[in-house]
What we know:
Structural class: alpha/beta
Radius of gyration: 30 Å
Low-confidence stretches: none
CATH class of the largest domain: Alpha Beta
Strand content: 15-25%
Helix content: 25-40%
CATH superfamily of the largest domain: Aldolase class I
Number of strands: 12
CATH topology of the largest domain: TIM Barrel
Amino acid sequence: MPLEFELCPGRKVGGDQPCFIIAEIGQNHQGDLEIAKKMIRMAKDCGADCAKFQKSELEHKFNKKALERPYTSPHSWGKTYGDHKRHLELSHDQYRELQKYAKETGIYFTASGMDEMAVEFLHELGVPFFKVGSGDTNNLPYLKKTAQKGRPMVISSGMQSMDTMRRVYELVKPINPNFCILQCTSAYPLLPEDVNLRVIQEYQKAFPDIPIGYSGHESGIDITVAAVAMGAKIVERHVTLDKTWKGTDHQASLEPSELADLVKSIRTVEKAMGSVEKRLLPCEMACHNKLGKSVVAKIKIAAGSVITLNMLTIKVAEPRGFPPEEIFDLEGKTVKRDIAADESVTEEAIENYNTRTKC
């Protein structure tokens, strides 16, 4: 299969396609539908390609005791962890409304299915692709069932080993070749020394027939931009309207100005990646014409003389003569007319000189 595939209708990823930028809203909407809509609009206005949420069917994601556990964190929205999660969980009808709003806004919409039943709902909803959060990447039955749905997949790799990621690849690839893996470290916020961007290159070598991306939880945008320069074809960053809001993800999220800067910087880096061909570019001609150097006679060279290197030097000269990289090719050539000291050495002054057959 080609490295490039269609992640969303009309939008391919991988190959030479532009980086696909996911604004991870997650549950930073505080359980409020109107805030969720504002965040979708913000993601679109900042230039992101996709607004992404997190969907759970809580009784399928957590067991009863986990939901009944007291939750006394300053970030809590309820007395128990179940109360907290229920406050943040949007309903099926709210998801349908958000999907409609995203379509009207002109941005792709999806969510991480945090359990198998959530994946069933998202499949029914018709999301363009499934996001697999790091917590489910080693959940092999979940992965298999998700892959069998036939939708493209984006799989984060936080908390996993390289051996596990090889197993993930070997499980998913025969079922559903349209997926990518994101380098990710599951810490919030993430310190630079724990990012390990070089894993992107290891994934590129280990899995050369799928796109590789990056999901970041660090402060600022520099590291994510560097990931794109290293070849990340999808990037995901948590976003918020206000980092001071209650919730554990806000601190590791980007505010609107930061997201806009990230998108702008990624697009600038993509332009700068350019071509693999190294050559003199049209934009360099002004500098080349002004400062480019030529081979010049250090002394007067009489007609019939055989050139030695001590007769030549290199200067910025008018008219332009042989380029400096050809000075060694002139050694041993015969001069067919006098060349004055400090005069440019040009092709018409050299006997039988042919640049295509020079040594």
